[in-house]
Amino acid sequence: MGERITGKSIIVVSPDQVSCDLSGEAAILNLKSGVYFGLNTVGASIWKLIQEPRTIKEIRDALVEEYDVEPKCCVQDILELLQELSIHELIQIVDEKKNI
């Protein structure tokens, strides 16, 4: 099951995955389970952003700048996607007080 994401969370991609760009979308393979996970263009944008550790605010700010979306709506969508990625063990959620 995925970890709880908070405003103080830092999102990090899991070392147990590989991914590739598919014409603006993304395919991610969980190396432990062998399960593929696909992302649309917005999800792929988030995936690209979290190749380096990012906070929810940093992700939101980048998406609001790139897309015509309200920040509050954007945060909800980000949280839903990140929770799904966490459940599939494709990301790690780290408290900002801990070392990455």
> How are strands sequenced across the largest beta sheet?
5-1-6
Into which percent range does the helicity of residues fall?
Answer: 25-40%
Structural domain tally: 1
Overall pLDDT = 90
Q: Return the structural class.
A: alpha+beta
Task: Enumerate how many helices there are, as a single number.
Answer: 3
Question: Which ranges are low-confidence, i.e. pLDDT below 50, for 5 or more consecutive residues?
Answer: none
The CATH C-level class name = Alpha Beta
**Name given to the CATH architecture:** Alpha-Beta Complex
Shape: globular
- Tell me about the largest β-sheet: 3 strands, antiparallel
The CATH topology comes to Outer Surface Protein A, domain 3
Tell me how many strands there are. 6
Q: What is the beta-strand fraction?
A: 25-35%
Write the topology of this structure.
Blueprint: E1 9-13, E2 17-22, E3 25-30, E4 36-39, H1 41-49, E5 54-55, H2 56-66, H3 71-87, E6 91-95
Antiparallel strand pairs: 1-5, 1-6, 2-3, 3-4
Helix pairs in contact: 2-3
